[in-house]
Design a protein that fits this description.
By secondary structure, the chain is of the alpha+beta class. It is built from eight helices and seven strands, in the order ααβααααβαββββαβ. 31% of the residues are buried.
């Protein structure tokens, strides 16, 4: 009879220890089991963008010259009202291939700072038609190094680059002609670009965005890719700051609150809300 309390006293701490040691796997299994079904991924060439109506010019009144009698004029034709803008799709999920910024899980000083390059590389490979869910680690390592070297030549450094600097890298190294920094974008602004087939690169205060897989306290400054949105107010992202970042869901309000460009003067992620869109 005395054996049972002894076994309970030994087994309960042992179970707790096993549970603690396997907490990440347990959390992963729970998230996988309870994860919502995402919209099917859409390749760039398959995107059907929402057409935006052309602006209707206002009619120009004709003023007759005073010295001559005004000629008889026909009844002006009524101006047709502009068509209502097409509704955005309820959800969309662009097939942006994923890579963590440390594809070989080597979180050294270089890879800790490679989120900007990894984000740009993912978007670039989407437009290049890369069909892989995950980019090849050797390919990523090679291109991260090339991008960092190019930044060294442009800026004299390759860490904590702003939205404008990442846009310059996209123009000068990758040859993009359509590069747009979105100042203070709204949720609808971001959704319109995503519905048009344009992934959005966003800067963020990494300690405010709320990713449970970041090593505490999280990065001061971070970049990630918005690749879509769901019908229940979440952004679908590729977050290179964790190997679990493929199609990671963030609440819309979390993304909007954490979206902050790098402030070079303060050396903090407390700059204005800004985002980057590039497309061919």
């Amino acid at each position: 009879m005395r054996l049972r309390p002894l076994l309970a006293a030994v087994s309960i701490p042992a179970l707790l220890l096993v549970g603690y040691s396997q907490r990440v796997r347990i959390a992963d299994a729970w998230r996988t089991r309870t994860a919502p079904t995402l919209p099917p991924p859409v390749a760039y060439e398959d995107v059907k963008p929402v057409p935006l109506p052309a602006p209707v010019p206002a009619p120009v009144p004709v003023t007759p010259k005073p010295e001559t009698p005004a000629p008889a004029q026909e009844e002006p034709k009524p101006v047709e009202p502009a068509p209502a803008p097409a509704a955005l799709p309820e959800s969309i999920n662009l097939a942006v291939p994923f890579t963590p910024q440390a594809p070989r899980a080597n979180w050294d000083a270089f890879h800790e700072e490679a989120c900007e390059e990894a984000s740009l590389l993912m978007v670039h490979r989407f437009y290049e038609g890369d069909q892989a869910n995950r980019l090849d680690p050797d390919f990523v390592e090679e291109h991260l190094a090339k991008m960092a070297a190019f930044e060294d030549g442009l800026f004299g450094y390759n860490t904590d680059t702003t939205v404008a600097q990442v846009g310059t890298l996209a123009e000068q190294m990758l040859g993009y002609e359509h590069v747009e920094a979105l100042d203070n974008p709204s949720v609808d602004d971001l959704k319109k670009h995503l519905a048009a087939g344009h992934p959005v690169i966003i800067p963020a205060a990494g300690r405010e965005i709320g990713n449970p897989y970041f090593t505490a306290p999280g990065p001061e400054y971070h970049m990630l890719v918005l690749r879509g949105y769901t019908a229940d107010a979440k952004f679908i992202t590729n977050d290179p700051g964790t190997r679990r970042g493929e199609a990671f869901l963030y609440p819309v309000e979390s993304v909007m609150a954490a979206m902050k460009d790098w402030n070079q003067q303060d050396q903090l992620a407390n700059g204005p809300r800004r985002a980057l869109v590039i497309f061919p």
